[in-house]
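Hi R.,

Here's the chain you asked about this morning:
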Amino acid sequence: MEEYNDGIKVIVADASHERYVDTILKTITDAAQVRGSGIASRTHEYVATKMKERKAIIALYGEEEEFAGFCYIESWENKHYVANSGLIVVPKFRGHHLATRIKRLAFSLSRLRWPNAKIFGLTSSGAVMRINTSLGYVPVPFAELTQDDEYWKGCGTPEHPCCINCDVLARTGRKYCVCTGMLYDPARHPGEPLPVELPQDVIDFVRKAEAASQN
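And the predicted structure, written out as tokens:
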């Protein structure tokens, strides 16, 4: 992992980090309200499961391990697509390149777990777009993203909105919205190394999970 001398560690979360889930969810909701933009809502159980499955990234500050940032990953369409979602940085910890550090680790974890999957995201943040671009993502029409209905349920419907902009998505037949769709296709980057080296315990966990899924 990359080293920064700011007292903040960015790591792959595990079951021991469930105590942060409610704080994470509140931070995500508060950030969406401040920006006046939408964000898909998630339950405590959903985020906790991501941690237990080692499909989440968390940033913690100091010896007290104060929550500083978060992101999680999910696969879609039988692991043909992977999304890095729920990226959040606590306002007091801005200026430490945390969004970049979290995204780079989430991206590396995604490529380790699903090396042939296309990695995609929806974002209305210019900063996230710049980070994605640095990792090799390109803007694409929504038609090139996963068409799995379960993924798009995260945006909600006009009757039951999860995002304040979901009416735009509904009106356009899921072709356009306020967010920009971005995609990383590993087929266009053969042999490209991971931007962040993952710790051995994470690699071992992933290999064990892969073996279990094949039995």
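The mean pLDDT is 90.

Let me know if you need anything else.
M.
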